[in-house]
Amino acid sequence: MTANETIKSTIRIFIHTGEVSGDLQGGLLASALYRQAEKRQLKNLQVEGVGGQRMADAGVKIIYNTVKLSSIGLIEALPFLKEGRRAQKRVNQHLFESPPDLMVLLDYMGPNIAVGKLMRSHRPDLPIVYYIAPQQWVFSTKKDTQNVLDVSDKLLAIFPEEATYYQQAGANVRWVGHPLVDILADPISKNEARSDLQIEPAAQVVTLLPASRQQELKYIMPRMFEAARLVQQAQPQVTFLIPLSRLDFEPMVIDAVERYGLNARLIHKADGQKAIAAADLVINKSGTVNLEVALMNVPQVVTYRLSNLTGFIAKYVVRFTGDYVSPVNLMENQPIVPELLQWDATPEKISAEALALLNDPCKREAMLKGYAQMRQAMGEVGVCDRAANEILDMLPARYALH
Question: What residue range is the signal peptide (predicted)?
Answer without folding.
Answer: none
